[in-house]
Amino acid sequence: MNYFLYKRTMMAVGLLGLVSAASAQLQQGFITPPNSIKPSVYWYWMSDNISQEGVKKDIEAMVKIGIGRAFIGNIGYAKEEVPYGTIKLFSDEWWKVTRTAVSTASRNGLDIGMFNSPGWSQSGGPWIKPSQSMRYLAGNEITVKGPQQLSQQLPAAAPNFQQVAVLAFPVPAADEDDINKHTPHLTSNASYQHIEQLVDGNIADEAMIAGSNKPASISIDLEVSQDFTARSLVIYPAVKPSKANFELQVKQNGNWRSVKTFTFDRSNPQPNVGFKPYAPVAVAFDAATGKQFRLIISNGQPALTEIKLLSAPRIERYEEKQLAKMFQTPLPLWNEYQWPQQPPVTDAALVIDPAKVVDLTKNVSPEGILRWQVPAGNWMVIRYGMLPTGVTNAPASPEGTGLEIDKISDSWSQHHYDSFIGKIRQSIPAAERSALKWVVADSYETGSQNWTDDMAEDFARQYGYDPLPWLPVLSGRVVGSPDQSDRFLWDLRRLIADRVAYKYVAGLRKASHKDGLKLWLENYGHWGFPSEFLKYGGQSDEVAGEFWNEGTLGNIECRAASSAAHIYGKTRVAAESFTAGGAAFVRYPALLKRRGDWSFTEGINHTLLHVFITQPYEDREPGVNAGFGTEFNRKNTWFYQGKAFVDYIRRCNYLLQQGKAVNDVAYFIGEDAPKMTGIREPELPAGYSYDYINAEVILDRLQVRDGKLVLPDGMSYRLLVLPQLETMRPELLEKIAALVKEGATILGPAPKRSPSLQHFPAADAQVRQLATALWGSEQSVRHTYGKGQVLSGMDMKAALNILQLPADVAQLPENVLYAHRSGDMGDLYFVTNQSDQPITLHPAFRVTGRQPEWWNAVSGEIRDLPEFIMQSSHIVVPLTLAPYESGFVVFRKAVANNGNGHTNFPEPVVLTTLTGAWKVKFDAAKRGPAHPVVFEQLIDWSKHENEQIRDYSGSAIYETTFTANDIPAGLALFLDLGNVTAMGKVKLNGAELGTVWTAPYRVNVQQALRRGVNKLTVEVVNTWVNRLIGDSKLPPEARKTWSNVNPYTPQATYQPAGLLGPVKLVAIKY
After folding, report:
1. CA-CA 20 to 30 A from 191: which of 261, 518, 521, 588?
2. What are the residue boundaries of the Beta-mannosidase-like galactose-binding domain, all occurrences included (predicted)?
3. Which domains occur in the chain, in start order?
């Protein structure tokens, strides 16, 4: 029994009468978190390496350390990293193991979730046909001359082509007037083998540069005999990843003038960042006339097939704007899918008149033969149809790999669900499947699509105009005007984003709900995310972020999840936690705590551990692993002692799910799509927190009460901040005007126009009229409108001063972060030292008239903080935090006066330092010494002269005795272990006092310490690293360890291990 915990609990119960019922429940739930507050875990079944006995033991281990929910992912990884096992996906034995897992979890009280398809991303499998998959719009062109009676077979783009529409329009002037038709002479400072290939009209053949001595900057000159007027440039890449900077120049009056500079990026050809991996790059510019043009290429040497310098205008970045090519790296910033307005086209003959686009779809036979009486003139006929993007679910075993389901249609959601989750559920008797509660959708990594079966009809319903006349924009042609063409593309991207949320996510949720299951979703995507992260997350039952233990991944994902949860009324915000790359087996809880604490300050309040890999082979240790994640599995050395870390997580998660987050500012993310994050501009000063908010929530959920912007679920904000955009749709601006009229305050620039083609141009006039009413004159920085006000042209500090809103936490050092929750239970602030140094600080909390308390989530201790100063709007509470230490400052009890002046965190007084010898018992079965070893002094195992100790991994039991003759009364007594790597389970005189795993490395001994001789036992555990290094020195047949992921060699660096001390008995006067 943990006597100290028992005593503390009894004391807490005695205090319950002093506080409200809500705060009493808060206290009890913190000391002993309820069963509903247990972390989750990704439970990966790697590459067919599973067994019935293994999953049983996995579940028992999870339950033992306090894990409450496991999400099963059937992962098929690269064979060179994870050799495949014998129990193939969907084999009879696989079905038995799956049933065993769910039934065992049901008996043991462990909730189960299933990834909605094999692999972790996204939603697909062999059951998805091409016509049910993600598809994009492709077009095949022919030119015909009228008048004539046409009967012609139209080409199909590729197999699985599904016709959508056949359109015809008069060919615009100069449509194909390419400089290559004017017999250009090409020269370059680079040694191209056949430079003429760059203008031969063939986009398949690469123009190669000979030799290895290539210039740092490449220039290509194009010269023609007569003046040529260029309005656009299209660069076609070869099938090779490349990236470079380009500049187009024209020679006029003997001087070279810059026409356009741009970045050419085709560095990532994966289909999940665009269904056209090597799409051309198009740019537009004001008409430039000359006989000589020069293209300068720097910061890269891209492989090119064709340069099209066109007299016709083209829509700049038309491939990107239709999502054929998306952001190339994992973290698209807020403005990645925003583009500047391109130059207008003054000659109407150069553009397509949408009124003259003819729909010939009904003139095409089922065999693809077009019969049409062609009017006089030159006509372009384009046959549009859908093609599969070809993206598959991954990483999955071959038996489970297939096309990804259509993400902008819900027609196949139920089919997809029934084909995998439904079959799993039906294969398990109802009495055995009570644990199966969740359907899981990991981060979105399957890229874009831009069309589906009912797209045209839904587009017309949403925007009030027919999209078909605007489809020629997809080939880069200008329809109406460049501005109108861009507006159509904006509408298309916005509709795609909305449909991904309301068709894919909501469709999957609806299918799950039919079977009584819920949908768990990560609301972002590192590779080709086509939706809007807030609306996308809002359609799930539970939303989640992600963070890696090292690096910065997670810096936008966690706030994306918490913002979606807050504005859509979801209490629990999960995060895939402690994902990692790099060396295996190196991490342990002390190294995880800093980043985990950081996630709590981003709004995360439910931790999902990444990753528990199932262990099917009892004779192999450390067992099956992957090249990513932290090893939260039963074969890891510290897994069972890790319960102390889980207990810490549970206490933090419990408190952070109480009340509501206190975030003063809502940053509007804008209406553009896709969108994976928001922007904080102007930046929020230290001591305040924020959420991102979207148009849907502003329109449908946001109201004003007492000058605050409030949501139905209890969240509130003092300030709505608009981004630096010139666009906003009028219906949104109308709602913002109504909010301001009722007393809201907004900060940001006035919009000037709508981004949409809907109701153009009337919508633009409506936006300007509303903006003038709201913002007043352009010089106005503060304009009253109704009961509210509109601020602009100032930083955030000035705006907050106008609101007379002081910092939620003032005087907070840069390396100390916080999170604030408030409700009937009071106010609680989570505070974390993110540095490796101890720190003393004097934060001022925006609370008045209440007693501060310190709630230690590591130990579960609760105590008053006697030293505090009440100010008019804040209470200053001095704190001292050890490296990476954290805790909760809780305000729940009324108090009238300042504190009594006693120090909140007094220095420990050393009563005795344990200098005697230690008897240390290692496990001989793990190659440790067969007999106990005496340590005269504490020593790092990795520096011990005995290689059985130096190479040891596992647990070792330290035993010693010490004498405590003078035990002071009225003081808190602790055993300080100094330092221990990785963890230490402490017993004193037979009483279990807890596990020490983070600074300060000490445990309360108040109830177990005896006057006289005391027996101390510390069970210390380290990581697998040192044993793996030791085994690497042995011949293969002599090794006892096995893991498919083992980067360790005899030259690898050992990890510190053991009880390092100094060990002291200390007293603290609170």
Report:
1. 261
2. 955-1029
3. 37-129+392-455+516-659 (3.20.20.80), 135-172+358-388 (no CATH), 179-350 (2.60.120.260), 662-801 (3.40.50), 809-894 (2.60.40.1180), 909-1068 (2.60.120.260)
As a whole number, mean pLDDT of residues 145-156 equals 95
pLDDT at 15 over 80: no
Q: Token pair of 82, please?
A: 């994870």
Q: What is the dihedral of CA 139, 140, 142, 146, to 10 degrees?
A: -40
Name the H helices within 883-1011. 947-950
955-998 tens-digit pLDDT:
999 999 999 998 999 999 999 999 999 999 999 999 999 999 99
In angstroms, the Cα distances linking 860 to 39, 40, 181, 497, 1007 are: 17, 21, 79, 45, 15
| Residues 375, 380, 386, 390, Cα dihedral to 10° | 160
**Residue 1049 φ then ψ, to 5°:** -125, 170
Confidence (pTM):
0.96
Q: What angle do CA 495, 275, 329 make, to 5 degrees?
A: 90
Cβ atoms of 260 and 250 within 8 Å: the answer is no
pLDDT tens sequence across 823-873 = 999 999 999 999 999 999 999 999 999 999 999 999 999 999 999 999 999
Q: Would you state the pLDDT for residue 14?
A: 41
pLDDT at 795 over 90: yes
Which tokens sit at 1046?
Answer: 């083992």
Q: Which amino acid is at 219?
A: S
Least-confidence region, from 319-333, 464-478, 563-577, 741-755 = 319-333
Alpha-helical runs (H) found in 701-776: 730-741, 762-775
State how far the Cα of 824 lies from the Cα of 800, in Å rounded to an integer: 26
Task: Give, rounded to a whole angstrom, the gap between the first and last alpha carbons of the chain.
Answer: 26
